[in-house]
Amino acid sequence: MSEQGGELEAVIGLEIHIQLATATKMFCSCALSFGDPPNTHTCPVCLGLPGSLPVANARAVHFGLMIGLALGSELAPRSIFHRKNYFYPDLPKGYQISQYDEPLCRGGHLGEVRIHRVHLEEDAAKLTHLGASGRIHGSDASIVDFNRGGTPLAEIVTEPDLRSAEQAGEWLKLLRTTMRRLGVSDVNMEEGSLRCDANISLRAAGSEQLGVKTELKNMNSFRFIERGIRAEIARQQKLIAGGGTVTQETLHFDPASGAITSLRSKEEAHD
Ligand SMILES: [Zn+2]
What we know:
Layout (H helix, E strand, L loop, with lengths): L7 E12 L38 H13 L3 E2 L6 E4 L9 E4 L6 E2 L2 E2 L2 E10 L3 E11 L2 E7 L6 E7 L6 H18 L11 E11 L9 E6 L2 H20 L8 E4 L6 E5 L7
Parallel strand pairs: 12-13
Antiparallel strand pairs: 1-10, 1-11, 2-5, 3-4, 5-7, 6-7, 7-10, 8-9, 11-12, 13-14
Helix pairs in contact: 2-3
Bound molecules: zinc ion (ZN).
The site of zinc ion (ZN) has 8 residues, from loops.
């Protein structure tokens, strides 16, 4: 793969969600929990009942600022939360409270990877798809546990500075160690307190221009992240080698089968 087509290089950026180790949720006084009986940590605020008002968790903001300081980010003198509207059963309010144009922290770096931004938001509830085993009235059923809904998250977005699956895995381990040392999260991937999305594109080696990227969603183990990124790079290489073009889409990597499938077009993106 040297002359005609030229060599391709992968360009990878990561979006990492970290559950903050606060005592209570992002905007209410419900206790954080993992493994407690479903729907035992809810209140009018995190269930989005009419008339309830969110109040930001000071400790979560403090943790967000600690992350920004550790990454050498610029801390915002003033920061704002927005409603990100979308409809899904894991979101009782019909919107997620997140930060959009005025995030808590901008810029910085960890090792050789630049940080784009760090912002705070709340987690969605947990949906479990029972499939055929949980049929209700003849339909496949899903159940929802609102305990996780409203858990404080820090979202750390990198610049596209990574070039391989192995490098992404290594860097993510460095980030996990850094967050653990700061004491802002238990960064336990098995319990979902560290989750990672990867934006992946290919371009001619040495080029400055970015190719069309795809987004691999919600990978929650280092092994799956590296395997998923590797599989997506291979898929794009094959597509381009066959004369095709990459389309921007959100993808899911199935670690069991190794398959990559399209999730959805960005219906929830711009509101
Ligand atoms: Zn609550």
